């Protein structure tokens, strides 16, 4: 583990203990604000650059609010995001989901990417059922 990450982890753990076992992003930011804070280097304190990054996050949230109904069979309709993130030439961009699902290779790549993200989320859960589900999804992902 990177020495900085070890220090960040130790500080987060200290803050969590000091806050009764829980911590909010606001408390982390408050603790990181002093220039001599261990956490200070993690953050971008240039307001112009940080503002731009925040607006990029807003743009990502905006594009994710739209949904589309996709009809797979006469009785099977699925509501999905209208736009999905797709990697192309090393860059990610948003594309219309209907374009992706109409191309077998792109659809397969989207399914694999989605399954990977689902597995990553499940791996963060300490419950055995989540770990078993992650294992099952991983096994199924290899068959897609």
Overview of the structural elements:
There is one protein chain. The protein folds into 2 domains: 41 residues; 76 residues, no CATH class. With 144 residues, it is α+β, with helices and mostly antiparallel strands. Helix 5 packs antiparallel against helix 6. It is extended and about 60 Å long.
- Using the CA coordinates, give the radius of gyration: 20 Å
How helix-rich are the residues, as a percent range? 55-70%
Our count of helices gives 6
* Uncertain spans: none
Average pLDDT reading = 91
Strand order of the largest sheet: 1-2
Structural class: alpha+beta
- Main beta sheet: strand number and arrangement? 2 strands, antiparallel
Question: What is the count of β-strands?
Answer: 4
Cα distance spanning the termini: 34 Å
H and E order: HHHEEEEHHH
What sort of overall outline do the alpha carbons produce when their principal axes are compared? Answer: extended
Q: Tell me what portion of residues adopts beta-strand conformation.
A: 15-25%
Number of domains: 2
């Amino acid at each position: 583990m990177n020495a900085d990450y070890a220090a960040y982890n130790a500080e987060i753990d200290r803050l969590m203990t000091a806050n009764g076992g829980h911590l909010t992003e606001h408390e982390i930011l408050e603790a990181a604000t002093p220039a001599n804070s261990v956490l200070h280097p993690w953050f971008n304190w240039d307001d112009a650059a940080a503002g731009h990054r925040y607006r990029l996050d807003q743009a990502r949230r905006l594009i994710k609010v739209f949904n589309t109904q996709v009809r797979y069979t006469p009785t099977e309709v699925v509501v999905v995001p209208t736009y999905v993130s797709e990697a192309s030439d090393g860059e990610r961009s948003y594309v219309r989901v209907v374009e992706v699902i109409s191309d077998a290779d792109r659809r397969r790549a989207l399914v694999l990417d989605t399954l990977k993200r689902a597995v990553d989320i499940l791996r963060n859960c300490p419950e055995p059922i989540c770990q078993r589900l992650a294992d099952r999804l991983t096994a199924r992902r290899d068959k897609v």
